[in-house]
Amino acid sequence: MRFAVQKRQKGVALIVVLMLVALVAVIGTEMASRLQLHVTRATNIKDNNQAYWYAMGAEQFAKKSIIELLERNNNVVSLEGGWSDEFTFPLEGGGIQAQLMDMQTCFNLNAINAANVNNDAGNNAQAGQRNRNDSNNTNNNDNGENAQQNTPQPAPRQASPDGAPPAEAEAFERLLTEAIPELDSYAKEVVRDSLIDWLDEDDELTQSGAEDADYGALVNPYLAANGLMVSKSELRLVNGVQPQWINALMPLVCVIPTVSQLKININTVKEEQAPVLAALTGVPLSDIQSLIGNREPSGYENVQDFLSESLFSNYPLSDVQRQWFDIKTEYFLLHTKTRYNNASFAMSSLLKVENDDTVTVIRREFGGIR
To answer: What is the full DSSP assignment across 126-139?
Structure first.
């Protein structure tokens, strides 16, 4: 009897020991798995950080290169030297792939608001002058009576005296024609006027445009920006823009945040960007392509040489159009892709040349957004 009890106790003890061994094995496996996970996570963080700093290093190199480019050519920027070509720089465990682009070879969408801003400023100035005149008339009243003061209101914003859209908006409409030939006239007017309404600060509806009421009636409602764009991806939200053709337009347009000026560097426009120059000048695309193809690598020494080209005798430019062209560049865009071990990183940096000939970063986008 005693022997049977001892045998059962030994069996229970063996089971307990086996359970403890199994538990320790499970805990050990879990600890090893967690350790491996932490090691992998730390490695990935290290590799991603290294890829990020590779991109920042490329940005610093680009800033230095821009300064050298401007100093070497007395601030005149052309494609000579191949600075805009994509280059690859191998590094231990990875590498850098980067390309520096001139941001003044594309159509700045914010420029369509430039004429509106100028008109509003002119209207406010006229209103202020009327206020001063009314005040003087009151002070000079010999009867001493207080003349009734009617506070003048700024005149309504007008695109131009004859009701035509601003020159920048007309150029954008021509760009739509060059980029999307199949687009009909009404569709182009809708996109043009809707973009004007998207950028201006008021709620006044342009002829074929759209304001908050139109966007608010959508299935997924939103409001118009009523301000300058910060990214050209906003164009997808503008009334009339269709996904069927927007990809054909996107490489030709850009957005420079807080800038509503339209400036194109005639020395750096490439043949694939010829539709931009054709839209700004009104010259047929084939003639512009020939002009770019025959341009000297060093470009034009001044804007007047460009405006003196024989083809412009048949397509005279207005004073406003002549202000759109330059031989200098103030904004550059750097696209960077880096790799380190199994990590990769993409960044786009918008660089600005300041008045003191320094280069600053005014925007960074991660993920390779162009």
So the answer is: HHHHHHHHHHHHHH
